[in-house]
Amino acid sequence: MTQKTTTTTTTTRKSSGWGLNKISFYTIGAAAILYLISAIFTLVKVDSLATVAKFMQGIATVIMVCIVAILAWKYVRSKTTVWKVLYFVFLGLVILGIIIPIVAA
User: Fold this and answer.
1) 59 or 12, which is more confident?
2) Cα 11 from chain centroid?
3) Residue 102 C-beta-side C-alpha neighbours within 13 Å
4) Element (H, E) at 45
5) pLDDT digits over 2-56, tens only?
6) Taking the complete model, does pTM exceed 0.90, yes or no?
């Protein structure tokens, strides 16, 4: 009786490109720096720097919402139409929530 042997090989591929995880990490780092600088500007209590601080907080918020929107779309794109409609409704509300305070200030 002969024994049959099988050999399997596995290939591990290391991605050195700009994946979403890497972009997310650098984005949260950039947002953290923007929030830190805007907090320092707010503590200094100079009117012109306070305006810059609000603007920087808005930019940091927009950056993070973009990453969340991309991840949410990756989740929703394979779902039914109802999920996609909800995605765009929620995204529109978030965008309005970001734009209105910036414009009103």
Assistant:
1) 59
2) 31
3) 17
4) none
5) 677 777 766 666 656 667 778 778 888 888 888 888 888 878 877 777 777 778 7
6) no
CB 34 within 8 A of CB 60: yes
The CA distance from 101 to 47, in Å, is: 18
* CA–CA distance, 29 with 26 (Å, rounded to integer): 5
The residues near 86 (Cβ < 8 Å, ≥ 6 apart) are 76
CA neighbor of 65 nearest in space, from 28, 22, 36, 17: 28
- Predicted confidence band at 84 (pLDDT cuts at 50, 70, 90)? very high
The upper half-sphere exposure of residue 54, i.e. CA atoms within 13 Å in the direction of its Cβ, equals 14
Query: What is the structure's pLDDT at 11?
Result: 61
CA–CA gap between residue 42 and residue 21 (Å, rounded): 31
